[in-house]
Write a structure and sequence with these properties.
The protein has eight helices and five strands. The chain is of the alpha+beta class. The protein is elongated, with a radius of gyration of 28 Å.
């Protein structure tokens, strides 16, 4: 957007210079025309400077948004690692010590009931830790890459929501940088989340296709489409804005096609260069 503004007002300035040259002979013979033209030129120059400043501020905000998204994801990954290490170091020994006590106090009915309840609570804590960590930063993304993480997430989310799901991942999809992988994962996550939470879809298709020039992603559903009037629609629009910004930060493209009652198709492309 800032670059488009600069180009637009560059063309405007060139046209003004052309008009100024062609009307020079006219304004020279008429003082009033000369004065009006000078005022108009001043107003256009002021407008150009103002919109140039707007373009500059827009570029700054876009850069800040990209920085905050990247920083936010890195902080979540750091927090996920700390929770895994710290809580794992607490809950796992607690579970082992409890098992040791259960073996030695198995004849005490009252103690057995209390320890069984405590064991169930520890199991709940372990499961909660796992779910929080996965929500902060998916471990599959670090260990097995984008394709596996997207496939696991989409199938799990659709199964919980009782949706049919089909995920196609290109065999050419190699490991990417961590910032790039998490950004692309979040785009798929938000797209599937919209289909699950808002569109009342029954089927979701996801494609990750690696080509010679980059990575193409497409998420389609057969739901009600994306509305903008209600709270759910506004939430979806905010999510789309976030996805669009993520793609812009990667020098990629982002397109949404949605019609009421005819589903939604979200397409994204990120240039990655030649396949290695």
């Amino acid at each position: 957007m800032p670059e488009r503004l600069k180009q637009l007002y560059g063309r405007m300035a060139a046209k003004m210079e052309e008009l100024d040259a062609s009307l020079k002979t006219i304004v020279a013979r008429d003082d009033r025309v000369h004065k009006d033209w000078a005022e108009l030129s001043a107003l256009v120059s002021e407008q150009k400077a103002l919109l140039g400043e707007i373009a500059e501020r827009t570029e700054e905000l876009s850069s800040l948004s990209t920085f905050l998204q990247t920083h936010y994801e890195r902080e979540k990954a750091r927090l996920a690692r700390e929770l895994h290490d710290e809580l794992g170091g607490i809950l796992t020994p607690a579970k082992m010590d409890l098992a040791w006590l259960q073996d030695r106090l198995s004849g005490d009915t009252q103690c057995g009931e209390k320890m069984a309840r405590l064991s169930a609570l520890i199991d709940q804590g372990i499961d909660l830790k796992r779910r929080v960590i996965e929500e902060l930063h998916p471990s599959l993304l670090d260990h097995l890459g984008l394709g596996t993480a997207v496939k696991w997430f989409a199938e799990e989310a659709c199964r919980n929501a009782k949706l049919q799901c089909n995920v196609t991942v290109s065999p050419k999809l190699e490991r990417l940088g961590p910032d790039l992988e998490i950004a692309l994962y979040r785009v798929v996550q938000e797209s599937v989340g919209n289909a699950v939470r808002h569109s009342h879809a029954t089927h979701v298709d996801i494609t990750l296709e690696r080509t010679a020039d980059g990575l193409h992603m497409m998420v389609t559903d057969d739901g009600e489409g994306i509305a903008s009037g209600d709270g759910n629609g506004r939430h979806a629009q905010h999510g789309l804005a976030g996805m669009r910004q993520r793609m812009r930060a990667l020098d990629g493209s982002f397109d949404v096609r949605s019609m009421p009652g005819k589903g939604t198709r979200i397409e994204a492309f990120v240039p990655l260069g030649n396949v290695t």
